[in-house]
Amino acid sequence: MKLIxxxxxxxxxxxxxxxxxxxxxxxxxxxxxxPFMEKMAPLLEKAGMKASIQAGGSSVGFKTAKMxxxxxxxMSRELKEEEKPYVKKMVxxxxxxxxxxxxxVPFDNxxxxxxxxxxxxxxxxxxxxxxxxVAKEAGRGTKAxxxxxxxxxxxxRPLDRGLIIIGAxxxxxxxxxxxxxxxxxxxxxxxxxxxxxxxxxxxxKLDGVEGTPxxxxxGKYKLQRTLNLVYKEKNAALAERxxxxxxxxxxxxxxLDGGTRPEL
Length: 264
Hints:
The chain is α/β, with parallel strands linked by helices.
């Protein structure tokens, strides 16, 4: 009995040491991926990883991962050729962009050519209704995906210098909700969440096709992109631990409930 007591007395301190030993894992970058990773935090913590998550945009995600300032960069665009040598990529989900407009805009469909003409400044109205196109700032994954799809900016046609420029997804929703003539582009997941919260915005069909999950899966809706975590080779083992968490049924449900398709 005298030998057992000291051992039992040590047990609380042993359990305490285990409970505070969770490893801090840092994520930074895409505001599209941000809310999903925030919801993953409890799942990661159960697996011994305490998540520290910050936004900043996809380019910030790449730079912080490359420089070792974050364990993982969150990116809602593809890696550029010049970026690929520095990091590894894990595709965690598939997202898609939709055109959104203030509810007051008197139409529910927009064509590819109309989008191009609006964002290059060739036209200022559709069906006689004046529009104020809103665009993302440089370095945002959403902008890169949008510009590449419509062959705008560095991918082709010069953008109108009079565009309203915003940053994070929340700013896009605020800009469109507050202007009855505003039109913008954003991830389906962000727009769906805003509509559920009662914001006065709506999704527009693109070339007559709704940006629904069903149309994305069938391939009818084309404006898609991947959501990625990027990391340095030295974090490969840590990436595998994160991957296992994000591949669980609980994590997949978070992606699905948020309007994206899980890829793990």
